Amino acid sequence: MPDAAGEDAWMPHRARDTVTLRDVAAEAGVSLATASRALGGGRSVAPENARKVLEAATRLRYTVDASARAMNRGSDAIALIADDLATPAVAAVVAAMERQARTVDAFVTVSSTRGLPELQAATIRNLAGFRPRALVLTSTRISQDPAETRVLDELLAFERNGGRVILYGSGSVHLPFDAIAVDDRGSARLMGEYLARTGHRRVIILAGTRERAYAAARTSGYVEGLLAAGADVQDIRIVNCAVSRQGGFDATAQLIREGLGGTDVLVAINDTVAIGVLSACRAAGIDVPGQVSVTGFDDVPLARDLTPRLTTVALPFTEIGIRAIEMAMRERPSEPVRETFRGTLTVRGSTSG
Questions:
Q1: Cα–Cα distance, 236 to 223 (Å, whole number)
Q2: Whole-angstrom Cα distance, residue 230 to residue 352?
Q3: In what residue span(s) does the HTH lacI-type domain sit (predicted)?
């Protein structure tokens, strides 16, 4: 059992109600001076050290004091707030943002909120105290719900105090901020049309969960494309599932137990779900694409390395990440800028025809 000194060294802020700058420096593994310069927006701090300090301050819920808040905004930090950092698509955008940020002597710090409005609002409020140049929010679940309205209020307050807000997601264009959106519906329509044209008429869509705006848009796009290219609406079945590899596996395993009944293709809401679909088919001895085709959406790096390689809709994550940094580093325009990216159909070995 550690002695008192050892325990205190392991968790220096445990016994105190107020977290100090010294605690943040210790947590980040940097000097007190480095932590002070990083939180003050000093350009002399190495990007890696600045990132460590901001992430440590967020973990410890450190609040910058009033005098620091009154300093002129000068940080080149860009704070990314995401629902789930484990999502390959978000990871691809983060990687692109970090690469682009280095080219302009900025750096990116990342926080995850699990999509919870209360945690989103608290994270925005805490990060705003460190005066980043911009906040990039990947969640688009901001509605009239009181909890989500608080998120909007925090973002508006951040911009009033001189910061920049950039939203990334399919439902972001109706909000009063610069936004980067994906045309999920139009992109998914490309897949639906391709499948119907290549003889895939009996379709099961693994559609994720209803509360995800992008999932609903993609499902609508799949159906529109299938119908436009000649599929019969009675041959299209929509099945909800968790948006995860396990969700795709479990839903597909259940469908296999029930009997696929001549299904031509299993259409996943994204590549992560599609990976679970392929695993369930492999476990049940079902040949893909010999017995059933499988498709995804996103084109995460693993999609190219699966067996068979996954037919999917490729989103331009690198371009999206670069554009987010470009928006963050420029002066705020008089009117919000909205840009929309569309995916491209990428046919590989998981579909027949």
A1: 8
A2: 17
A3: 19-73
Is 220 within the bounds of a domain? Answer: yes
CA–CA separation, 135 and 324 (whole Å): 10
Tally the domains of the chain: 3
| Confidence label for 34 from pLDDT (cuts 50, 70 and 90) | confident
Peptide bond into 308 cis (omega under 30): yes
Q: Crossing angle for the helix pair 21-28 and 32-39, nearest 10 degrees?
A: 110
Query: Given this model, what pLDDT does residue 65 score?
Result: 52
The answer to whether 53 and 28 are in contact (CB under 8 A) is yes
Closest CA to 138 of 157, 151, 125, 149: 151
SS3 303: helix
pTM (global) more than 0.90: no
Please report where in the chains the tokens 């068979």 appear, as a residue: 308
E strands, the chain, are 77-82, 107-112, 134-137, 164-168, 178-182, 203-206, 236-239, 265-268, 293-295, 312-314, 338-341, 344-346
SS (H, E, C) 205-229: EECCCCCCHHHHHHHHHHHHHHHHC
The angle formed by the CA atoms of residues 233, 238 and 243, to the nearest 5 degrees, is 150
Question: 64, 86, 110 — which closes off a domain?
Answer: 64
- Chain centroid to CA 349: 27
Range of the domain at 45: 6-64
The CA distance from 188 to 199, in Å, is: 17
CATH number of the domain within which 13 lies: 1.10.260.40
Q: How confident is the model at residue 191, as a pLDDT? A: 98
